[in-house]
């Protein structure tokens, strides 16, 4: 099994591929939106670890364009999927010199725009919104899993504002820097998961008295 990095958009997937070694990590593009993410989640290739990355919109003024949010949990419909890997992934990204934050991420059916709507969602404690991570988080609950999003727009700098293009270019460069960090995390986390899985039958055999 390989490591898997999942993106929604072509621009995100291309930026990620630029930062990756030539083999060992598969980059999957789902297309934009939760329905496409649900379809992709239903037929993910076998993987030892999965990371979702790409762009996101901030819901509070504590995030700036270009900041990296590592999801501590993903909220989707009425579900909350914890991301235990968040502290490890955030520390690795911080060591790489990136501006990293952690916090809850919410997956929406639509692009969240407008200061009032962002504030409404932000009052729930969510720090950013995307449109794909929720279905993927549910599908990967039993795997090492991470969500790392780069902020493109904020309440103070909305989508389709004057600076959107510059922010998108910055975010694209940040995704390229994120990619090798995610690949290194996945290699380690996936290896640990495989070792733990292999150790389960060995312990069962010992319990039954077999050598």
Automatic annotation (TrEMBL):
The keyword Lipoprotein applies. Gene3D superfamilies: Nucleoside phosphorylase domain. Keywords: Lipoprotein. Residues 25-161 form the Nucleoside phosphorylase domain. One of its GO terms (cellular component) is cytosol. GO terms for molecular function: adenosylhomocysteine nucleosidase activity; methylthioadenosine nucleosidase activity. Pfam families: PNP_UDP_1 (PF01048). PANTHER family: 5'-METHYLTHIOADENOSINE/S-ADENOSYLHOMOCYSTEINE NUCLEOSIDASE, 5'-METHYLTHIOADENOSINE_S-ADENOSYLHOMOCYSTEINE NUCLEOSIDASE. This is Lipoprotein. It comes from Planotetraspora thailandica. The lineage of its organism: Bacteria, Bacillati, Actinomycetota, Actinomycetes, Streptosporangiales.
């Amino acid at each position: 099994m390989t490591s898997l990095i999942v993106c929604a958009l072509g621009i995100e997937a291309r930026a990620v591929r630029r930062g990756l070694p030539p083999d060992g990590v598969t980059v999957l593009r789902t297309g934009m939106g939760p329905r496409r993410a649900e379809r992709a989640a239903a037929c993910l290739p076998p993987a030892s670890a999965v990371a979702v990355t790409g762009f996101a919109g901030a819901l509070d003024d504590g995030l700036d364009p270009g900041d990296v949010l590592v999801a501590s949990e993903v909220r989707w419909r009425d579900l909350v999927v914890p991301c235990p890997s968040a502290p490890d992934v955030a520390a690795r990204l911080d060591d790489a010199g990136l501006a990293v934050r952690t916090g809850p991420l919410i997956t929406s059916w639509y692009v969240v725009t407008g200061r009032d709507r962002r504030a409404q969602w932000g009052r729930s404690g969510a720090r950013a919104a995307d449109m794909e991570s929720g279905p993927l988080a549910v599908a990967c609950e039993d795997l090492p899993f991470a969500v790392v999003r780069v902020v493109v727009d904020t309440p103070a700098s909305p989508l389709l504002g004057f600076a959107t293009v510059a922010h998108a270019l910055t975010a694209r460069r940040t995704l390229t820097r994120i990619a090798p960090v995610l690949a290194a995390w996945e290699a380690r986390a996936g290896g640990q998961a495989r070792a733990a899985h292999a150790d389960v039958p060995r312990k069962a055999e010992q319990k039954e008295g077999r050598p």
